Amino acid sequence: MQAILSVTVPFFALVLCGYWATRRGLLPEAAIPGLNAYVLFFALPCLLFKFGASMPFSKLIDPTLMAIYVVCAMLMVFVTIAATLKSVDDRYGIDLKNSAFGALVAAFPNTGFMGVPLLVALLGDAAAGPVISTVLIDLILTSTFCIALAQSQEEFSPSESEPSTMRSSALRSLRAALSNPLPWSIALGALVAATDFKLPGPVNQVIQMLADSASPVALFTIGAVLWRASLAGQNTGVKTPVAQYLPVALLKLFVHPLLVLSVGVIAKALGAPVPAFGLTVLVLAAALPSASNVSLLAERYGADNGRIARIIMASTVMAFVSFSLLAWVLGAKPQ
């Protein structure tokens, strides 16, 4: 356990540093978008490119593991919506838009900014392949589906059928997902690996320097984003009931990894080629706190950002204990 804490404590401490620095005014709120842009468009793409270029495509993309993760992501979406969608005489239920964003935050772990470097530190470079697969699935499939579902409620009109509305919403969401540089950096890295192309020395050094900065800057940025997101409820003056956000955080941290483990074990019992190491990576990825960028998406699409921010905050705080314990139970050995 001590070896695992030696890895997880610094990661969560950097998140706390970002939160504290922003709260104290050492990092101006106006600087947060710049930090976020640096990580999203420069540092993290270089990190993912480096991993994609350093391993065979068969190790980067495992169809069986991807199928398991897709099934679990969709199950998490439906379970969360069923648990939170408002019904008759439901005191704490919410509408479809907010329920869909709650489902997204329950099914979308912070694999990009936190998961890739953390799981590689815990399990070695071989963990990069499975966790990168989860990044692709959540960016392209899970986000697209949940955003389309959220938009379908407000866009539906008598002159347009609901399936047509869902389809148009999904296409817009998919276009937005494909504009994200992370999937393209992974694809470019895989192409370089497949063709055995060697980058010029100076170019490779620039990529290496940017990749090395990804982990600390991303973690610091998570803390800053969490602080800014925590102001959402204060600015509106509306207090989100605990019953509307804590259960979703618990679903994220406990039900999601348990679901991935269960589906993986069942698939293996049915004869599917499920690698034990890959399944461990998927379970730990699912146990990560909610992705902080969902707060930005909720704000952009007019959902209750205060509620989403509280889910992310609660899952991040609790994940320090729950994730560390699960890594210890699964026998993770820091490299």
Summarize the structure in short.
The chain is mainly α and 335 residues long.
List the helices and strands and how they pair.
Layout: H1 2-23, H2 32-53, H3 57-60, H4 63-84, H5 96-107, H6 111-123, H7 128-155, H8 162-178, H9 181-195, H10 201-236, H11 242-269, H12 276-286, H13 293-300, H14 305-329
Helix pairs in contact: 1-6, 1-10, 1-14, 2-9, 2-10, 4-5, 4-7, 4-11, 5-7, 5-11, 5-14, 6-7, 6-10, 7-8, 10-14, 11-12, 11-14, 13-14
Structure description:
With 335 residues, this protein is mainly alpha-helical. The protein has one domain: Na+/H+ antiporter like fold (Up-down Bundle), CATH 1.20.1530. Helix content is 79%, strand content 0%. It is built from 14 helices and no strands. The two termini are 14 Å apart.
